Amino acid sequence: QIQRALRTLSIPLERLHVMKGHMIEDMCKGLSRQTHAQAKVRMLPTYICSTPNGTEKGNFLVVELCQSQVRTLLVTLYGDGNLSPQMMYKIYDLPEGITQGEGEALFDFIAQCVTQFLSETTSSDTDSEQCLPLGFVFPFTCRQTQLNKAELLSWSKGFNCSGVVGKDVVELLQAAIDKQAGPDKEGEASGGGGWFKSRKSSQSAAPSQSRHVEVVALMNDTVGTMMTCSMEGRACEVAMVADKGSNCCFMAEAYLVETTDETSGRMCVNTEWGCFGDDGTLNDLFTPYDQAVDEESSNPGEKRFEKMVGTLYLGEIVRHVLIALTAEKAMFTGTDAAVLKEKGVFTTQHLLEIVNNEDSITEVRRILEAVGLQPSERDCGRMQQICRAVVGRAATLHATGLAAILSYMCQTRDLESLMVNVGVEGELFAGYSRFEEILLSVSRLLAPECMATILASRDGSGRGAAMVTAVALRLAAQRHAVDEVLAPLRLSRDDLVKVQALMREEMDRGLGKETNPSASVRMLPTYVTHTPDGTEKGDFLALDLGGTNFRVLVVRITEDGITMASEIYVIPVGIMQGSGEELFDHIIDCIIDFQTKQNLVAQMLPLGFTFSFPCQQVGLDKALLLTWTKGFSASGCVGQDVVQLLRDAAKRKRHLGMQVVALVNDTVGTMMACGYDDPKCEIGLIVGTGTNACYMEEMKNVGTVEGDQGRMCINMEWGAFGDNGCLDHLFTHFDQVVDETTINPGKQRFEKLISGMYLGEIVRQILLVMTEKELLFQGKPCPKLQTKDIFKTKFLSTIELNGLALRQIRAILNELELDASFEDCVLMREVCQTVSLRAAQLCAAGLAAVVEKMRENRGVDQLSVTVGVDGTLYKLHPCFSNNLQTTLKDLAPNCNVTFMLSEDGSGKGAALVAAVADRAANAME
Ligand code: ADP
Ligand code: MG
Fold first, then answer.
1. Which residues belong to any copy of the Hexokinase N-terminal domain (predicted)?
2. In which residue ranges of the chain is pLDDT below 50?
3. Are strands 711-715 and 658-664 parallel, antiparallel or unpaired?
């Protein structure tokens, strides 16, 4: 019989694996918005979003409501890693009957304790005018909606004060404390730090009330355990209380906590795992002894996990095992064992003394006799085995729950392995000598991918509460400072409406013959008058010069679609910077080589030339080079017609296989390439290294070209928007610095707010300022970050990817030789988001001006139009296109704009320009 009893109390490993799985399922249930209400493991958000980092300093008050006492505590932190905080305690007994009386009386009493404690502890050396932050440890089930807002759901543990359930207990305590402060203190200003000043001023409308004590945080005791263990300079992200009850909390990815709006970073979740199994998942582990304990408890059917592991119940489980064995005549035969009917006859202390003294049968005998039993030698041995089984099982179940949490953390953080510190506190942990060993070995078996280090917490609820309060204040102060830095980069809707209006103004000026020279947006005519209609046909050559590579292409347009072949050619630096003749001769050589390889020498093919340098176009096939850029400086070209230069070279080389019909800007190529697939595509947009746009304008509005009929594509050159000072009000300190370090200061100002060449630099400047203000990297200087262009725009894409792919972010940080904490990563992400959002919004404001103008031009209430887009920033950044489209919808609600990604605008697009010109020419004939 004894063997059978022991067997039911021991749980095989496979069964523990199953239980771990159930625990993870229940945790997910508790976190999900849909299933949260029914979940047994409640997974309550605590609004604690960070663990201590050691820089916390100042005085912090804690008040803790306990079973029969109020504990007050004053903790002084020195910002020295929080190694040896100074602490002062005082304990006050709760008056008789107060736990059943009026709520107001209870809170008044707590407030009195605080006041009295303060008057005794804070002497002349503490500035009595200073506002003291207070952390409130309130160990009842609350619905918390902020760190300092928690509505009591129900009393427990013998408390039942009237008028509190459903109320915000922080507010009740604050009111009671304010009442204590008395009317004579009213109106006194507090001398707190920046955070308090800002809090105060924002509350100045409320009746002025000097708050010597401000309740900053409310928390449950488990959370406190986690926070104290973080003190030794390493983050502790899990805490377990193995005491009368049992509970666990951990830092979860905030976006998984669907019951809160927090999506960034992490939040401590109070699992309330004591209720695990209340829906039956533990039924097959529940022994008849557990059943009996449960039935005799004040809340049968509830807190089933807790009843198997909490020290409030372990003695009872042992008692029921003994009752069963005595009834089966396996123990205490022939003696009076009636005492076993007495509830609570064995305490956890008894059990611990037995299990900790492995060999001491005399100890067992002493205890059994003390409670009134007459044990035989055999009874003592069996008692020892039973106690070991019950206490060992409690430790094993704790370990299984812990394994579930560790595995869950590892999975949701997208890690292959997890190293984590676990703070533990409670009677079972402190009193059972094998607890830690079992915890580690079992959790290791069940979650081999996780490495836990156990840290013993001392007085979690007291010191921990002070830490929570301190961290809350640090975060509030940091938030304030971060907002201050980022505020100038955050644009309001009004700002954007204004940018849209300014862009519109500049467009009109650029189109006007007289006003054109003074416009920052040059609105260059392209002599492209039609977009493709799908009837284009034939073989075309295309050249792409001025992008990342020099390419020659052949583009075959048939009824069935477009096929292309291309080759990349190198332009040696000597030729880039030699004479114009050499350059264009080289280009012709490449074309001849290409046509030979492609077997195209026998034909005369029309050629479209994508030439990505600033040109003054005077015809479709006539464009004067305004200036070289991107490392080119071939002599004798500036001011010349580049089409003619190419034709001259062909003549010199006696190459008759091509005829240059069009010079094409890359925005136009993008529009044309998309236009072939979608006739509504009448706008081209590029957001890559730089940014630019083109669109189809009415000829009658183009003052710089003769003629009023039809439309012409206008190359806006919008990157220069603002070069006349009209956007000066938007430029931040960071933009100024970035601009000053470019090769063209004061130029391309709009582009410098938007495009890939600059976003990384803007972010870098912000990070430098934030480091200097000690908001990042704990103020440690990072020399690598001083290097220009070290923070690449593609980093923004990685960092902003949803869910914080931490591994990749780590790689970036390593490249930058940055030692970033998790919080640093979260803040860096916010910086990136702010910068890329602004870029997308500004781009949208520009586009809004374009589509609205087109709508007006056509005199329609609703315009449907497609934008052909190219550029790596637009294509690869995870949020840019979404932000752009959302903002555009808002700014131009009467335009229905579709975005279409372009493929090879400068190849395919150039050929299509040639094809459309060809088609138009044929139509004329
Ligand atoms: P170009 O504009 O010169 O034709 P791209 O359209 O390819 O070339 O744009 C290149 C720019 O895109 C780079 O300067 C870089 O700033 C940016 N970029 C590159 N990769 C990414 C990425 N993953 N996310 C966002 N931007 C990127
Ligand atoms: Mg490009």
1. 2-230, 482-676
2. 124-128, 185-211
3. unpaired
CA dihedral over 539, 540, 544, 545, signed as positive or negative? positive
Cite the DSSP H helix spans in 653-779: 666-677, 733-740, 751-754, 756-772
pLDDT on residue 294: 94
- Give pLDDT tens digits for 654-703: 988 899 999 999 899 999 999 999 999 999 999 998 899 999 999 999 99
* pLDDT tens digits, 862-905: 999 999 999 999 999 999 999 999 999 999 999 999 999 998 88
Q: What phi-psi label fits residue 157: left (phi over 0), alpha (psi between -120 and 50 degrees) or beta?
A: left
Looking at the DSSP bridge assignments, the partners of residue 62 are 73, 135
> Which of 872, 877, 901 to mutate to test ligand 1, by most ligand atoms within 8 A of the CB atom?
872
What is the DSSP code string of 509-532? HHHSTTTGGG-SS--EE-------
Residue written as token pair 């284009």: 536
- Supply the pLDDT for residue 166: 94
Per DSSP, what are the bridge partners of residue 45?
A: 269
Q: Name the closest-CA residue to atom 21, ligand 1.
A: 794
**Residue from 282, 268, 307 nearest 26 by CA:** 282
| Pocket of ligand 1, beta carbon within 6 A | 547-548, 688-689, 756-757, 793-794, 797, 871-873, 876-877
Residue 403 to residue 397: CA distance in whole angstroms? 10
Tokens representing 535 are 């009837």
- pLDDT more than 70, % of the chain: 93
pTM of the shown model = 0.76
pLDDT of residue 269: 93
Please give the angle made by the CA atoms of 762, 767 and 773, to the nearest 5 degrees: 130
Distance, CA of 172 to CA of 174 (rounded, Å) = 6
Phi, psi of 801 (to 5 degrees): -55, 135
Are the CB atoms for 305 and 277 separated by under 8 Å? yes
Longest CA pairwise span in the chain (Å) = 124
What φ, ψ does residue 238 adopt, rounded to 5°? Answer: -140, 140
Nearest CA to ligand 1 atom 20: 794
Q: Which two tokens stand for residue 379?
A: 């009874």
For residues 893-912, one letter each, b for 16 or more C-beta atoms within 10 angstroms of the residue's C-beta and e for the rest, the string is: eebebebbebbbbbbbbbbb
